[in-house]
Give the backbone structure.
Amino acid sequence: MPAEIAGIGSTQQRLRVSPGFDPLKAAVGPEEYFVLSRIDGKQSLKDVLLTTGLAVDRTIAIITRLRSLGALLLPHESAAPAPAAVPVRPPAQPAKAPQPAAPNALRAAAGTAPLGTAEIAVPSHDLSLPNPTREELAALAEDIDLDDTDRRLILAIERLLGAADPRALLGVSARADSRDLKRAYFRLSKEIHPDRYYGKRLGTFAHRLPLVFEATSRAYARLTGTDRAKGSSPAATQRPEHGDQPQTPQAYASELFDRACQLEVGGDAMGAMKLFAAAVRVDSQLRYLRRAASCALAANQPRSAVEYAKKAHSLAPNDPSSARLLAASFRGLGRLNDAEEVLVLAMALKSENDTLTSELRNDLAEVRKLLAQ
């Protein structure tokens, strides 16, 4: 772990995001935006480097670029670096006939597409929540630190998790192009990123936020990734020209997984476990297995948790997180000796995440305390 970053300084510093920085204008990518979201003026640069999950060198390169774009402020700074430090883009060619701005601005405010273009100015979701469920009404009435608009947006997206429609999740229409998708994703992720609500009382939304944020991120990646693979525009891939094509096993597993997450968040752990099991049978992804194991532990089903955790550990044997989940599953089943063995081996694995290492050490101490009783 470097003690300093060239052009920035000590990794013990706590950087802040410049209030006037616009990631859309700066053409910041999803990975760069994720790192940007981790910088909150509270974590040191070292903490950011350790918790992003990216390679340290990659994270340093992203932080350095964000700094050059004027996105980051050092502790003693009150304004972004001088414009000369920001790369200058070549001027765009003047348009032949500028279009009036007023009608489109009105349509943008309504969340609809401007006339004559495919641009979707802002994400649009139905915040009226027609025919709300009992759980949704209870969520809207919770005494927490979220205003009504934020709650309705999160609940509106949560309703779409089982629909398998990535455009609906982003709040854009079939006419949206790649630029519109990027704008919608960035603006939406600002609203529902879990880090935005750090330290606040969230109630049941503490479980909903990561779920909807992950779903929208996956929707954006699916749309842009599919477009690159096919060499066509997002709008073209959405048109139902091949609507009779069968659903792939992977897409079906993803749908089952999303529905299982919904049930888990809604408090139906046993119902969620059935769908997690179905998703894993179709596509044994590491992410599915880990979530299924965690759900099984919460549902007091340690045997199922051990089965899922073992499979997850076999897919990522050098991942301390997988080892910790397996140890927790063994502990839930009362197999303390097995839990101790897994934790000892996990401690020997190389990890740059100091927080995870501390958690493993605490888990091992607790297991050994139980063994000594």
In short: Confidence is low (pLDDT under 50) at residues 83-121, 226-246. The longest strand covers residues 4-5.
